[in-house]
Every structure is written in structure tokens, then in C-alpha cells.
């Protein structure tokens, strides 16, 4: 029986040593866990700081999006105005083309009339008309030549205006998105 008790006592000592070993391991594990908790607390602080920065960035982005939306609205309005301007310019170009066509007709008629008058002058000279007749014809031809020059001047102005409108129209169409 004493032997049995010794044996039990040895078994209890062995169990006690095993428990002491387990307690040492647990203490070591608790130390590691405390270190890990400390690291996690630091990480949580950093993450909180990052979240604050991200919230600020989101606010800035929202503001930027609002500004961009406003800019898009302004650009759409500008496009509408440009379309209207292009329509007006197209109408002006059509009117100017018509005016140029009319001036070309007047120029042709003027050239025919000048040729006819030159022929009549030759006939008058051949028939020996008086100085008064020739002077009268010369005055009418000079007046007609003045009208012709006036029409050529008006035609040149219309041609220049038409060219300017064509350039503006080309510039506006090239700017269209």
C-alpha cells in the first residue's frame, strides 16, 4: 500500500509537473497575445486615421463632381448658342450667295450695255454726230460706268462678307464636339 501511495504520489507529481509546464506555455501564450493586442490596437488607430482621410477625400470628390456637373450644364448651353449662331450664319451665307448672284447678273448686263453703247458710239462717230450728241453720250456712258463701278464695289463688299461668314461658319463647325 505504501508502494501504491508512492506510485500515486509519483503520478501526481508527474501530473503537477505537466500542469506547471502547461501553465508556463499559457503564460508565454498570454504574453504573445498581449503583444498581438497591442499591435492590433495600433493598427485600429491607423485604420481610424485612414478612414478619416478617406472621408475627407470623398467629400472633395463630391464637390468636384458637383463642379463638373455645373461645367457640363454650362457647356451644353454654350453648344445650344453655337448651334443657333451656326443656323443664323447659314442663313446669312444663303442671303449673301443670292446677293452675289444678283450682282453677277447686273455685271453681265452692264458689260452687255457697255458693249452696245460702244457700238453705238462707233456708229455716231461714223455718222459724224455733233459734239453735243457725243458729249451727251459720253456723259451717259460715264454715268453708266459709275453705276458699273458702284455695282462692282458692292459685289466686292458682299464677296468679302460672304468669305468672312464662310470662315466663321467653318470655325464654329470645327469647334463642335
What does this structure look like?
With 177 residues, the chain is mainly α. The chain has one domain. The protein contains two helices and no strands. It is rod-shaped and about 180 Å long.
Rg, rounded, reads 53 Å
**Averaging pLDDT over every residue, what do you get?**
85
Count every helix, treating DSSP H or I runs of 4 or more residues as helices.
2
Give the end-to-end Cα distance, rounded to a whole number of Å: 107 Å
Helix fraction by DSSP (H/I, runs of at least 4): over 70%
SSE topology string: HH
Q: Low-confidence runs (pLDDT<50, min 5 residues)? A: none
How many runs of DSSP E, i.e. beta strands? 0
The structure class reads mainly alpha
The rough form would be described as: rod-shaped
Looking at how many chains there are and whether they match, the oligomeric state comes to single chain
Number of domains: 1
Largest pleated sheet: none
The share of residues in extended strands comes to: under 5%
